[in-house]
Specification:
By secondary structure, this protein is an alpha+beta fold. It has a domain of 36 residues. It has one helix and four strands. A four-stranded antiparallel beta sheet has the order 1-2-3-4, with no helix packed on it. It starts with a helix and ends in an 11-residue tail after the last strand. The relative contact order is 0.19.
Length: 73
């Protein structure tokens, strides 16, 4: 993988979602991201429609930062 490809991949990994299509509302709506689960080495997030609360997508963040107050083995 060349330098340009690595840089593009890093930029893509940092994208955040602001709107997604909601099948219940039948239109693209703003979303809220919330932490669902902390796993060893990853975090699982869920995106929900801000209007109706429908769960629209999930995202896994690997190599998650350590959270204060959580005991890690």
């Amino acid at each position: 993988m060349g330098t340009h490809q690595r840089r593009s991949k890093q930029q893509f990994e940092k994208l955040t979602v602001s709107e997604l299509y909601c099948p219940r509302c039948k239109i693209s709506r703003p979303v809220r991201e919330r932490l669902l689960l902390l796993l060893p080495g990853a975090e699982l997030y869920e995106f929900r429609c801000q209007v109706c609360g429908e769960s629209l997508a999930t995202r896994e963040n690997k190599a998650a930062p350590r959270h204060p107050g959580i005991i890690h083995p």
